[in-house]
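Friendly challenge for the regulars: who can give me the structure tokens for this chain first? No prize, just bragging rights.
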Amino acid sequence: APRMAADRWRSLRSRPSRPLGERRRDWRDGALVGVAGLVLLLIADALVKDATSPKGDDLIYELMAQEPFETHSFPFAYRFLVPTLVHVLPFSNELSFSLVAWLSTAACGTVAFVLMRRFGIRPWLAAALALCLVMCPQLFVVSLRQGRNVDPETMLVMLAGGLAIADRRPLALGLIIAVGATVRESALFLIP
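First reply, four minutes later:
Bragging rights claimed.
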């Protein structure tokens, strides 16, 4: 029985055995997919009329970005990372929210590509699916609302957590969950 427990622990700690060159190529190709997704997103955003003023949750995030360390309503008070980042960036809130959302959406494409490659999905199919994710309505609407929502950042946290799980990196997963919980508490669903 002790040997079985040791073998089980060792198998949990072992990482998938893909050559380092393939992993680097996946990240390089994933970065290209992310850049392509960002270009597509910006073109689509330029062709569609944006929301003019924040309403609902978007308004709450806008108010949080103006004063991130004030008291805010539940559950938004726990979602302080993105509004605080917007607050410290040297641009207007509208531009800062947009930049963070656009970069997070592009990063979603990159991480989704790499995650699919970890499971042996062909590069062309992984790239196509990652680009579909970047252009999915949920992320595109955030772009139209000048990024005043945390859906792209939440999806990035979930994808990065999934990649850490697939690569069997518990420390990375713990850090992703800890940081992700400050974006949206749903990051806690990554806890196995």
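The chain has a mean pLDDT of 84. The chain has nine helices and no strands. Your move, everyone else.
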